[in-house]
Design a protein that fits this description.
Layout: E1 3-9, E2 13-20, E3 25-32, E4 44-45, H1 47-65, E5 72-79, E6 85-88, E7 98-99, H2 107-115, H3 119-126, H4 135-145, H5 149-154, E8 158-161, H6 163-171, E9 178-180, H7 181-184, E10 190-191, E11 196-197, H8 199-205, E12 214-216, H9 227-230, E13 236-241, H10 242-249, E14 258-262, E15 266-273, E16 284-291, E17 294-303, H11 307-316, H12 326-332, E18 340-342, E19 360-362, H13 370-396, E20 405-408, H14 415-425, E21 429-432, H15 437-449, H16 456-461, E22 465-469, H17 475-494
Parallel strand pairs: 1-5, 5-13, 9-12, 14-20, 20-21
Antiparallel strand pairs: 1-2, 2-3, 4-7, 6-8, 10-11, 14-15, 15-17, 16-17, 18-19, 21-22
Helix pairs in contact: 1-6, 10-15, 11-13, 12-13, 13-14
The structure holds adenosine-5'-diphosphate and SN-glycerol-3-phosphate.
């Protein structure tokens, strides 16, 4: 039996999963690492922690699976996107902490860019909104604030990468400086139509282009891991940003196919085929995957708080001990109360993109308690998803979830939340048997590239349903509930 090792380097933890040739997960290892919050709105990771947790979980999972490294034929890397690392080319030492996608330190600079009228240029070239979320202003910040950094970058001494690129550099012992098109598409430096770094944008930010990685297909040759790491040199042959990898793991290959991943936040991707659709509703245009030099595009909606609202019930309000307790509470909630929770803890993402507003609760009565709040928390995730799907529908001119919404991520385990989601979007919601779709997607890329796994059509047939949630709510109730949500959002934005 041959195996593929998938590294899923996420925002709060790193997972390594070994898949066999039949794409069955054999063993998993997970490691949480430290989050750094040096100032309000700043979020950093120590790049050495990202590397140590990646190498460590890989070694642990190989040991746990009891497989001979000779039989591990390929490595796939999927990663938190946008997070920015700059390191010294000769020593591999980062010159600053990784600035994480959630970090808002460049908000004022982004505002200046918007006021200076650059938004359309960025939208045309990169498909993105001007927002601190993406890598380019984080990279500029490092070049502006670390002593001598820009000069050193000009002399070719420093390299930039998203997390995939940094891990490839470390795994290959500094031999390969590369990324894939899905990660490049999140930097706000990459022209997603022309398929190359934008010299116009690099000039605007004074970013020396020598420090940018080579951009490859998502299934490609990214070099081999150092022999001393895992017992032999293993080819790295699949790379994709985590949300794109999840869309692959969900086999969303056809235009119109749609997935939503419910982890800490929620990211919905709609495959739009070989056409980059420019959103009129503040969604992002991105690359879903790139194979054989051909990009497949997607519309993406990002919600910052999904499962995190359940964490707030647990750690903030302390009305639950376990995420799964939300379901029995929601079932007991008083149906006559209409409590609406807008979880804008860090502002609102798509389609509102308001970083300043904060969360709110409407409709409380003397009898409102944990049951109603738990219900409102789960409901808020469905309402936000409907916001995204309505925006997608308007962008593509036909119902976005015309077939089915495929869901994954930790929160998709909640039957109550998934049923309510189907009710509110008025369409079927399919949950697959394998919820680790992110690792699965990149394992498939890596395995396919080395010829050990099936091509696209065969892989798509392996997707297996765990449960389908069909809409049951009557239309009047649905529209009344959704209208109440829209009013609550309006009030939240106005507050
Ligand atoms: N049964 C459940 N009901 C509701 N939320 C859940 C349930 N199980 C997990 N979650 C939520 O899912 C999230 C974890 O999902 P995961 O995919 O591991 O996230 P991430 O990769 O972002 O860390 C947590 O925020 C948790 O609150
Ligand atoms: O690491 P996750 O799962 O929280 O995903 C983060 C996204 O890639 C950010 O764009």
């Amino acid at each position: 039996m041959k195996y593929v090792l998938a590294i899923d380097q996420g925002t709060t933890s790193t997972r390594a999963i070994i898949f066999d040739e039949a794409l069955k997960p054999v063993a998993t290892s997970q490691d949480e690492f430290k989050q750094h919050f040096p100032q309000s709105g700043w979020v950093e990771h120590d790049p050495d922690d990202l590397w140590a947790s990646s190498a460590g979980t890989c070694r642990a999972v190989i040991e746990r699976a009891g497989v001979d490294p000779q039989n591990i034929i390929s490595i796939g890397i999927t990663n938190q996107r946008e997070t920015t690392v700059v390191w010294d080319k000769s020593t591999g030492q980062p010159i600053y902490n990784a600035i994480v996608w959630q970090d808002r330190r460049t908000a004022n600079y982004c505002e200046e860019l918007r006021k200076a009228g650059h938004s359309d240029m960025f939208a045309d070239r990169t498909g993105l909104l001007v927002d601190p979320y993406f890598s380019s202003t984080k990279l500029k910040w490092i070049l502006d604030h670390v002593d001598g950094a820009r000069e050193r970058a000009r002399r070719g001494e420093l390299l930039f990468g998203t997390v995939d690129t940094f891990l490839i550099w470390k795994l290959t012992g500094g031999k390969v400086h590369a990324t894939d098109a899905t990660n490049a598409a999140r930097t706000m430096l990459y022209d997603i139509r022309k398929g190359r770094w934008s010299s116009t944008i690099c000039a605007l930010f004074d970013i020396p282009m020598e420090m940018l990685p080579e951009v490859k297909d998502s299934a490609a040759d990214f070099g081999v891991s150092r022999a001393d790491l895992f017992g032999r040199e293993i080819p790295i042959s699949g790379v994709a940003g985590d949300q794109q990898a999840a869309a692959l793991g969900q086999a969303c290959f056809e235009p119109g196919m749609l997935k939503a991943t419910y982890g800490t936040g929620c990211f919905a991707l709609l495959n739009t085929g070989d056409t980059p659709v420019q959103s009129k509703n503040r969604l992002l245009t991105t690359i879903a995957y790139q194979l054989d030099g051909k990009p497949t595009y997607a519309l993406e909606g990002s919600i910052f708080i999904a499962g995190a609202v359940v964490q707030w019930l647990r750690d903030g309000l302390r009305i639950i001990h376990e995420a799964s307790e939300t379901q029995p509470l929601a079932e007991k909630a008083d149906p006559m109360q209409n409590v609406v929770l807008v979880p804008a803890f860090t502002g609102l993402g798509a389609p509102y993109w308001n970083p300043e507003c904060r969360g709110s609760v409407f409709g409380l009565t003397r009898n409102s308690g944990p049951n109603e709040l738990a219900k409102a928390a789960l409901e808020s995730v469905a309402y936000q998803t409907r916001d995204l799907l309505d925006a997608m529908t308007s962008d593509i001119g036909s119902k976005a979830d015309k077939s089915v919404l495929r869901v994954d991520g930790g929160m998709s385990a909640s039957n109550w939340a998934m049923q309510f989601l189907a009710d509110i979007i008025d369409g079927p919601v399919d949950r697959p048997q394998i919820l680790e779709t992110t690792a699965l997607g990149v394992a498939w890329l890596a395995g396919m590239q080395v010829g050990a796994m099936p091509e696209r059509e065969e892989f798509a047939k392996l997707w297996a349903l765990d449960r389908e949630f069909a809409p049951q709510m009557n239309p009047q109730t649905r529209e009344a509930k959704y209208a109440a949500w829209k009013r609550a959002v309006e009030c939240t934005l106005a507050f």
